[in-house]
Amino acid sequence: MKPQFGNGVTLVFDDLGPRPGAPVILIHGHPFNRTMWAPQTAALTAAGYRVITPDLRGYGDSPVLPGKALLADLADDLAALLAGLGLEQVVVGGVSMGGQIAMELRLRHPGLVRALVLSDTSPAPETEAGAKLRRETAERLIAEGMRPYAEEVIDKMLAPYNVTGMPETAARVTAMMCATDPEGAAAAQRGRAERPDYRPLLAGATEPCLVVVGADDVYTPVAEARALHALLPNSVLTVIEGAGHLPGVERPEAFNRALLDFLDGL
Q1: Could you give the residue ranges of the DSSP H alpha helices within 35-127?
Q2: Residues sharing a CB contact under 8 Å with residue 6, sequence separation 6 or more, in sequence order
Q3: Nearest CA-CA partner of 24 in 204, 251, 259
Q4: Where in the sequence is the domain holding 217, given as residue range(s)?
Q5: What is the pLDDT of residue 7?
Q6: I need a labelling partner for 221 at 20 to 30 A (CA). Which of 86, 109, 162, 215 fits?
Q7: Quick one: which of 266, 260, 262, 265 has its CA closest to 43?
Q8: Is the CB of residue 62 less than 8 Å from the CB of residue 180?
Q9: Rg (CA), the chain
Q10: How far apart are CA 230 and CA 207, in angstroms?
Q11: CATH number, domain with residue 47
């Protein structure tokens, strides 16, 4: 499906599962696409949930807008998508950058958010050094393409033992990264260099929230997930053993169990 929004962005997305089912939107991270959620979509739709998985602008099958894509832009795209579907309230989940977009959606469109699922993500503002690195990475992606970057980060996206022990999964994750348009990935990196501080927002959020983290995540370690859990007044924390930054991909059964337990309890 390709809804046209007033801001001229046309997002490609999947909308699966029973229409009366409680709607859930799952937001992929960088530099991936909506297919990363395939294990979750299968489990949730089988349990009676409606699941919407979009390709963010610049990723997957959605169009590339070169320049800079702020987290606010990406959140507004999704709010427009949900409005186009006639949905007034949904469970919003995201991994890594997708989790930050979920926080931005809660900031800009609070009435839309029934509950939050925040996987392997951080609410802290970007540091000066981090912003510099993101801008440099953006230029590198355009100059070199995605493959050198993908090969460099694969053993941080997945736990190193899963890169060697789950070669098909590692190949799928690498292929997703390599298939991303460098201009789209660069635009998001430039936007993330300006990431604000979501901690004051989350400290006052009363919605139920599931915080998930891979036990061996090096980008957003368990200690950060525990701090995020402590910040949120109405949250639960699940640590997924045997996983790195993408537990929904590395350990889908454990991730899905935590997600379904949370959703069923709403």
Answers
A1: 38-46, 71-84, 97-108
A2: 80
A3: 259
A4: 13-125+196-264
A5: 59
A6: 109
A7: 260
A8: no
A9: 17
A10: 14
A11: 3.40.50.1820
Cβ neighbourhood burial of 264 (10 Å; 0-12, 13-18, 19+): exposed
**Is 28 inside any structural domain?**
yes
Q: Beta strand 50-54 with 13-16: parallel, antiparallel or unpaired?
A: antiparallel
**Domain count of the fold of the chain:** 1
> Over the stretch 53-90, which tens digit does the pLDDT of each residue have?
999 999 999 999 989 999 999 999 999 999 999 999 99
Element (H, E) at 214: strand 209-214
Backbone φ and ψ of 148, nearest 5°:
-55, -40
At residue 207, the pLDDT reads: 96
Helix (H, G, I), strand (E, B) or coil at 150: helix
Q: From CA 1, how far away is CA 216, in angstroms rounded?
A: 36
Does 52 fall in a domain? yes
- Percent of the chain residues past pLDDT 70, beyond the cut: 97
In whole angstroms, give the CA distance from residue 124 to residue 128.
12
Global pTM exceeds 0.90? yes
In a domain, residue 206? The reply is yes
| C-alpha closest to that of 255 among 189, 191, 211, 203 | 211
Let me know if residue 1 belongs to a domain: no
